[in-house]
TrEMBL record:
Organism for this UniProt entry: Euphydryas editha (Edith's checkerspot)
InterPro entries registered for this protein in UniProt: PGBD (IPR029526)
Disordered: region residues: 16-39
Ranges for domain PiggyBac transposable element-derived protein: 117-470
Domain of life: Eukaryota
Pfam families: DDE_Tnp_1_7
Stated name of the protein: PiggyBac transposable element-derived protein domain-containing protein
Higher taxonomy: Eukaryota, Metazoa, Ecdysozoa, Arthropoda, Hexapoda
Amino acid sequence: MSKLTDSDILRALLDETNEFESQNENFEEESENDSDHLSIQSDINSEFEAELPCLESDSDDDIPLSELRQNRASYYTGKDGVTKWQKEQYRSNVRSRAENIITNLPGPKSVARNKMSPLQCFELFITDEMIDEIVNCTNEKISMQTISDHKKLETTKEEMKALFGLLFISGLVRSGRQSTIDLWSTDGTGMDIFRDTMSRNRFGFLLNNLRFDSTATRSERIQTDRLAPIRNIFVLFIKKCQDAYIPHENLTIDEELVAFRGRCSFRQYIPSKPAKYGIKIYSLVDSKTFYTLNMEIYCGKQHENSPFAVSNKPYDLVDRLVQCVSQSSRNVTMDNFFTSYETTENLLKNHKLTVVGTLRANKTCIPPVFKKNREVNSSMFGFQKDITIVSYVPRPRKMVYLMSSLHHDKEIDSATGSKQKPAVITFYNHTKSGVDMVDKLSRTYDVSRNSKRWPLTIFFALLNHAGINGMIIHMFNNGIEKNKTNLRGKFIRELGISLVKEHLNTRRQNQKLPKDLRTRISKYFGNISENLSEPPAKKPNTMQRCSKCPRKKDRKTKYSCKKCYTPICMEHADFFCQECGNFDTNDLN
């Protein structure tokens, strides 16, 4: 084992996602029709397009007197006429700024430091408390079903974990959207672990009845909370994420879209996202390890007088998301939907957090002179004591604007060569993709199944996030072996098997199941013959009632089935030689 490094984390998380197209393009690589936050969406934000006027004359005679005065002044004035930016940077301080000094080292907190196995790391986020609540709510739903008694079986915590394990295993083989008929197929194309764990009908029955709140009181709660069907589980999950981990110095705020095409009053359409239709979730993510710290579901405008009614303005949204890292001296990277002068000032003064983000061209804090045509690859800077603004021309008639409370000079990144990119832009490109990478990792081994119920879709997303966060904790606690590949796939495989093992152990002790099935289950425990149920002990020459004959016949027999040990008379028995008797149970179906 070796010490965990940044490159190790990236390799472990990304080595199995190479077939997915990268979504992290830099400024100069974007086409005119790109919908990344750095470029302006022509179909949505056309009013923000930063088109540049053509140069007509360099003579001072054609320049208004007000502009001449500003050109000769030591500062730029924003479009609002109030915000002023110094042309030259303030004197650099020798000492580090207080908002850049981190006192808590990143990594697992004390509650997570001794969690070594994938199952233990997963249970940091999907706890027994949460599973108990899900089991109770699911059983409440099952009890309301008007079906025959043999199907009306309540579930248990053990079986619920097995269900989650099968979801992870289906995601591992990327069969989350595949028909269960194929997964449970007995013609050699299916997977044994699905048939060994539970029947296909039971799997579908549990998913259909899976609930996360009390159905009896939902109609009352939903009057004041649109997220009532998933609220409690979602809040518990976020709390567990924050209790287990201290983030690195750079964080990312962005939106992700959980694919969903069913009926939902707050379903969104975002053409730039892979799913296009779905439920929008705002996330705060560690940009170095892709650990999710905080999330908020966009549910539109809540009902009046609701205790859950909050403002959906970017300023307020960012303020809520960063509460868990307030006063921690971190930096938050955001796109132009979230970034504004007011937001940057608020995070610096009230939360002791710096901001690096792109700006839309219509922001009134941007000086008009920053929007004038200039040479390609040229930059203009404006400075305040704590905030810097920069305008950069990546190609003709195209400008990008960034604001930073982390950078306070005119540094140009020499590694960009002739493009002469400011260090602010290089930093932004390096830290902007935290949420996008979480979304990409979720889609790589997605546990989601087709559903018309949006609470279930959100819960699938929580399982995906729990798998990613759990692996990050696992890597910190165990380190990474050299020359190992597909580490995340191995983590999910071990997690899935660990979740189903307890239920498998119960099934192999069930004498009513065929012996060959119980033998097959035993392979997950390392010893095929270990702990297999023995036939029930009985006294010599003891007669038992035939299980197949009607009760009124009261027919007694000394014979029993060699697979399930059920008493059976000669009328209901067939004869096989020893070679032919070694058949598979599926041949009888």
